[in-house]
Amino acid sequence: MPPRDFYRLLTSVVVPRPIAWVSSTSPTGVHNLAPHSFFTVASVDPPILQFTSVGEKDTLRNIEATGNFVVNFSPVNLFEEINATGTDFAPEVSEFDQAGLTREPSLTVETPRVAESPVALECRLHRTIRMGDCTLVFGEVTHAAVSSEVLDGSHPRIELLNPLSRLGLDEWGTLGPIKEIKRIRASDWPRDFRPRA
């Protein structure tokens, strides 16, 4: 199977994928903003996020040049704006301006946050690792800004965050029904455990 076809297969079965909406700044001061759907937590202590740049894009070049970036949360109510910032604009064009989004100064890094997003995770570049035609970007979180509107006490509520995710092709996912179940400790394992049908 050709690599491009296999990529489409992988991104259709490794789902749903959370979206890192990454803002970065070029060496000349242009504010870039782009969605990246290969995204996860890489370390708890220290807190490190990881996203993958497929190919060499403005986001990667900016982060390697400046050493900082922001991962903005991707909520459903900004669906069209998030999709718009995936457009392959020239490096001198800011997606903030094209999508009509507001820059908000960060507290610990030079790159601005997306004011409309309910969560922003400011990051300093930890390292990048080349892997095939991709680059893994690791960033240590230096500050988390969370809107009080999505909090229940100090806990972010998933239904208030209302996250977007990527699926295959041009498909995107929304939250849907939420299921809750407690993890079973080995000491509490029931001798007669049977999964419910």
In short:
This protein has 197 residues and is of the alpha+beta class. Helices cover 17% and strands 35% of the residues.
Would you give an account of this structure?
- The chain is of the alpha+beta class and 197 residues long.
- The protein is built from 5 helices and 14 strands.
- A 7-stranded antiparallel β-sheet has the order 3-2-6-9-10-5-4, covered by helices on one side. A 3-stranded antiparallel β-sheet has the order 1-13-14, with no helix packed on it. Strands 7-8 form a two-stranded antiparallel ribbon.
- The protein is globular and about 65 Å long.
- It starts with a helix and ends in a 24-residue tail after the last strand.
- 29% of the residues are buried.
